[in-house]
């Protein structure tokens, strides 16, 4: 069946590129995972409960959650051969390079490699979710020529992440704060990395190839990389008094301010209020209250100057900083959570697949004859 081309929309803005039952983003500030308000999930649920919800469509029973947690702990171990591959990367490699390479290598060790049926995809989703966190923190230690901390018995993903950096079990307030961040980062419908995962999935390759596509897409500063760039901005500004002039100078040079703007939300990112409150709480907890007023001043100036609102990354950056997570791990941490959204989308795509293959609008030369060069 031939289809009529649709009008061209740069950046696919406003284009409905598929159906999904996983998540709903309301442009007027609302975000629901499988129908549940994310703010409510962030205050009531654990990340593991939310991960199950995203993968299976319903909240887990107590028994299902206990079994899911057991599987996540049991599946954490990274094969030593994968850690050896990471050790061979040059010193200039970055944490995202370690993660991308590590996930690619992990695929070869998966007993379901190459299978794209629903059950195999669910099993791989659990393994990927279990392993991205120790892969990230082990990669970080390897980059710094240290041995990874063991810690695979840490009960939650948040605790495993923090243990992997310090070698010590975190305080409950630290793992609770990280758990909230993981919930807010878990899923966001057809964002660039998820769409990349779905495009890859639509050719029916293994899930690991789809997740590698997604990690590569997440890295850029216009998407997941913004949470690293936003921290650099906040550190450079340093005080609320400097914020207004800093923004004006950068806007005058037509530079983008990281942590602001969004393709879908035009009146504010629905995840920001929860993250802003978290920054206030852990700012008081740590005695480092300087970041909130800088962010708020930036919000005020950006709204006045450009009519733009903060996105999640503006507030995630200082919260991660207060949890003593090094800035180059901000984007890998995002991937450790978003992998659950990617995996759910890959599974949904492959369960109801049609290859994703749009058209381009040709802008090149008119047809012409080949002429052999004479000189
Ligand atoms: N700083 C300065 N100007 C910005 C801006 C920002 N963060 N975000 C958008 N703008 C400007 C655009 O340049 C454009 O200006 P113009 O009309 O003069 O050309 C205008 O605002 C409208 O942009 P819009 O169409 O809404 O952006 P987009 O949908 O193409 O891009 C983002 C969305 C997220 C990529 C973009 O806002 C951005 O680059 N933000 C910074 C990176 C970031 O925080 N990413 C994380 C997203 S969750």
Total helical segments:
16
Mean pLDDT: 96
List cofactors, ions and other ligands.
coenzyme A
Q: What would you call the shape? A: globular
Percent helix: 55-70%
Question: What's the CATH first level of the largest domain?
Answer: Mainly Alpha
Query: Gyration radius, to the nearest Å?
Result: 22 Å
Query: What can be said about the biggest beta sheet?
Result: 3 strands, antiparallel
Spell out the CATH superfamily of the largest domain: Citrate Synthase, domain 1
Which structural class matches the secondary elements?
mainly alpha
Query: In CATH terms, what is the fold-level topology of the largest domain?
Result: Citrate Synthase, domain 1
Tell how many strands the DSSP assignment holds: 3
- Report low-confidence residues grouped into runs of 5 or more: none
The percent range for strand residues is: under 5%
Q: Count up the domains.
A: 2
> Strand sequence of the main sheet, in spatial order?
1-2-3
Written account of the structure:
This protein is mainly alpha-helical. α5 (95-108) runs antiparallel to α10 (207-218). It is globular and about 70 Å long. 57% of the residues lie in helices and 3% in strands. It is built from 16 helices and three strands. Bound molecules: coenzyme A.
Characteristics:
single chain; Cytochrome p450-Terp, domain 2; 375 residues; Citrate Synthase, domain 1; 3 strands
């Amino acid at each position: 069946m031939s289809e009529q081309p649709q009008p061209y929309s740069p950046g696919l803005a406003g284009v409905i590129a598929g159906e999904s039952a996983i998540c709903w983003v309301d442009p007027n500030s609302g975000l629901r995972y499988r129908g549940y308000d994310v703010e409510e999930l962030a205050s009531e649920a654990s990340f593991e409960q939310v991960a199950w919800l995203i993968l299976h469509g319903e909240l887990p029973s107590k028994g299902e959650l206990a079994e899911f947690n057991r599987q996540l702990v049991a599946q954490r171990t990274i094969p030593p051969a994968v850690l050896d591959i990471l050790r061979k990367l040059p010193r200039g490699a970055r944490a995202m390079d370690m993660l991308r390479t590590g996930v690619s290598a992990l695929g070869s060790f998966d007993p379901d490699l190459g299978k794209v049926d629903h059950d195999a995809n669910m099993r791989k989703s659990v393994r990927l979710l279990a392993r991205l966190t120790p892969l990230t923190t082990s990669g970080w230690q390897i980059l710094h020529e240290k041995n990874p901390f063991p810690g695979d018995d840490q009960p939650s993903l948040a605790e495993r992440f923090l243990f992997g950096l310090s070698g010590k079990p975190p305080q409950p307030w630290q793992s609770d704060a990280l758990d909230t961040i993981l919930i807010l980062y878990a899923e966001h419908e057809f964002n660039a990395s998820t769409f990349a995962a779905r495009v890859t999935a639509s050719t029916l390759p293994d899930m690991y190839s789809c997740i590698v596509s997604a990690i590569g897409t997440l890295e850029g500063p216009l998407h997941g990389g913004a949470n690293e760039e936003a921290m650099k901005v906040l550190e450079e500004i340093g005080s609320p008094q400097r914020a207004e002039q800093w923004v004006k100078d950068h806007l005058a040079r037509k530079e983008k301010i990281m942590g602001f703007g969004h393709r879908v939300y035009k009146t504010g990112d629905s995840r920001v209020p929860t993250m802003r409150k978290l920054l206030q709480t852990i700012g008081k907890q740590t005695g480092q209250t300087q970041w909130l007023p800088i962010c708020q001043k930036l919000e005020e100036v950006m709204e006045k100057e450009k009519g733009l609102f903060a996105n999640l990354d503006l507030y995630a950056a200082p919260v991660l900083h207060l949890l003593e997570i090094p800035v180059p791990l901000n984007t890998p941490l995002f991937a450790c959570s978003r992998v659950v959204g990617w995996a759910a989308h890959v599974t949904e795509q492959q369960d109801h697949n049609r290859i994703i293959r749009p058209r381009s609008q040709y802008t090149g030369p008119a047809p012409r004859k080949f002429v052999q060069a004479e000189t």
